[in-house]
Write a structure and sequence with these properties.
- The structure holds 2 protein chains of 2 kinds.
- In chain A, 0% of the residues lie in helices and 47% in strands.
- The two termini of chain A are 21 Å apart.
- By secondary structure, chain A is mainly β.
- Chain A has 2 domains: 36 residues; 73 residues, OB fold (Dihydrolipoamide Acetyltransferase, E2P), CATH 2.40.50.
- By secondary structure, chain B is α/β, with parallel strands linked by helices.
- In chain B, β2, α2 and β3 form a beta-alpha-beta unit.
- The radius of gyration of chain B is 19 Å and the shape is globular.
- Chain B has a single domain, classed as Peroxisomal Thiolase, Chain A, domain 1.
- In chain B, 37% of the residues lie in helices and 19% in strands.
- The chains are: A mainly beta, B alpha/beta.
- Chains A and B meet through β4, β5 and β6 of A and α4, α5 and β5 of B.
């Protein structure tokens, strides 16, 4: 699966959301781009008290920050699995539930 | 020059049936009495937002109720940094000649004026509405993510963070008006219910009712030492956690702190007041503001550095973690406390430097304001 992100057409900066002006080069030319969904867990928490309906089964459920291997874009994502920092994961996008879900993948070198 | 002329702080806790404006009025009355100023002498007014009583014109609403007719009035909203941001703006107004006496005030019945679920949902909105909040994000969860990365990076454990909650409670135990005063131990923090790992309930500030007010003046105050704001710095580098580099997430605090210290030309402080919405907030901000080496804040705490009688007393009222957090006023309480302690130091002729550093953050380490306060003789 590919993830939708935004790429500055002038300098190549990639962000989760487009900007009116690129923070790196001030260009206003942003276009949607596709990014491979593989990444690693940078930060992780098991949420026991959620502000609203849990996005996956729970609480408790997992909320994590994942950085994609390609492009280095950070995503906040939910999971039913218990994850640890450094885990290799795959992101998926499901607008019916949480915007981003992660599942653990076999360890990569 | 802008001097602190007066301060006011209500008790924090469950203060029903007081409304947000009631709490603002109580704090403002205290601050004006402390400054020995009348309502007619206030020509500038800055009022912080209230999540439980949102309003298009919070400053005008307050002015009418309090009986003010200021030449300048504005409502301000930069999350937890709002209080110090208003003080920074008040100083700017005075230095620009737009006002002589500026009242900065905030108050909110955040605890009793809405349900706990509503408060949590409102606060969670500091997250991105499309990419973060629908994942089940909450303010504790955002800071828990920071905490997990921090503990992992420095090889620390939950009890390293819990030590900050213990110190704040110790300070609150001797502070009249604090929301929670019963002393706690590290074991109590670790045994409290998990909110979002690694943060437990006692790693998180409570939701409180309360109000705070500060009067800044162009004139030398007649009540104790002339406390001047000698440095200020701000930085606003991101709003959402997803939009920042996690390894550099506290860069805004570093920038703001350096700017304030550089402007003041002051690097030695007798007291510090640092925003402590969670134990992790306090640890990370102490390090970003230059009061501990990276990953060493808890070790310095254990060495006694931040204790009431230590070299760098920290949040001696108990901070947000134990005096309480009523929104904007919670972030102002650190400054009110610092002013009171500096006055006490002067009255007792203590050896402690008559200077203080204050820092607050809003969002998820998103908005930063640092201030330096020094006594002029």
């Amino acid at each position: 699966m590919m993830l939708t992100v935004w790429r500055c057409q002038a300098c190549g900066t990639v962000r989760l959301c487009g900007r009116r002006l690129c923070p790196e080069c001030s260009s206003g030319r942003w276009l949607e781009a596709a990014l491979p969904s593989a990444g690693r867990v940078l930060a992780v928490t098991r949420v026991h008290i959620a502000p609203a309906e849990a996005p996956v089964v729970g609480p408790p459920f997992t909320l994590c920050l994942v950085k994609t291997d390609v492009g280095g874009v950070q995503f906040m994502a939910a999971s039913e699995e218990e994850l640890t920092i450094g885990d290799a994961v795959a992101l998926s996008c499901d607008r019916q539930a949480a915007p981003y879900l992660v599942t653990r993948q076999p360890a990569r070198p | 020059m802008a001097f602190v002329a007066g301060v006011g702080l209500t008790a924090f806790g469950d203060l029903a049936p007081a409304t947000s404006v009631d709490l603002q009025l109580e704090a403002a009355e205290q601050a004006l009495a402390d400054a020995n100023l009348s309502q007619a002498e206030i020509d500038g007014l800055l009022v912080g937002y209230s999540t439980s009583a949102p309003h298009l014109m919070p400053a005008n609403r307050f002015a009418e109720r309090f009986g003010l007719r200021p030449a300048f009035a504005q409502g301000v909203s930069v999350g937890g940094a709002t209080g110090l941001s208003m003080v920074d703006l008040a100083r700017t107004l005075i230095r620009a000649g737009r006002a002589r006496n500026v009242l900065v005030v905030a108050g909110e019945n955040r605890r009793s004026g809405q349900s706990r679920a509503t408060a949590r949902q409102t606060l969670a909105e500091v997250g991105d509405p499309v990419h973060e909040v629908p994942n089940g994000g909450s303010v504790p969860a955002y800071y828990a993510l920071l905490a997990s990365a921090y503990l992992h990076r420095y090889g620390l454990r939950e009890d390293d963070l819990a030590a900050f909650a213990v110190l704040m409670r110790h300070n609150a135990s001797v502070t009249t008006g604090a929301h929670f005063r019963k002393p706690i131990a590290i074991g109590d923090v670790l045994a409290s219910p998990a909110v979002a790992t690694p943060l437990n309930r006692l790693d998180c500030c409570p939701i409180s009712d309360g109000g705070a007010a500060i009067v800044l003046s162009a004139d030398l105050p007649g009540n104790g030492p002339a406390l001047e704001i000698t440095g200020a710095g701000q930085a606003h580098l991101h709003q959402h956690l997803s939009a920042t580099d996690l390894e550099d997430v506290a860069a805004g605090a570093v920038q703001a702190a350096m700017a304030a210290k550089t402007e003041a030309g002051c690097g030695t402080f007798g007291r510090i007041g640092i925003y402590d919405s969670f134990t992790i907030t306090l640890a990370m901000l102490l390090e970003a503001c230059g009061f501990a080496a990276p990953g060493r804040a808890s070790a310095q705490l254990r060495d006694g550095c931040f204790e009431r009688d230590g070299p760098l007393p920290l949040n001696t009222h108990g901070g947000l973690l134990s005096y309480g957090h009523s929104g904007v006023a919670g972030g102002m309480a650190h400054m009110v406390e610092t002013v009171r302690q500096l006055r006490k130091d002067e009255a007792e002729n203590s050896d402690r430097p008559r200077s203080a550093f204050l820092h607050a953050d809003g969002g998820v380490l998103s908005a930063h304001v640092s201030l330096v306060l020094e006594a002029r003789r």
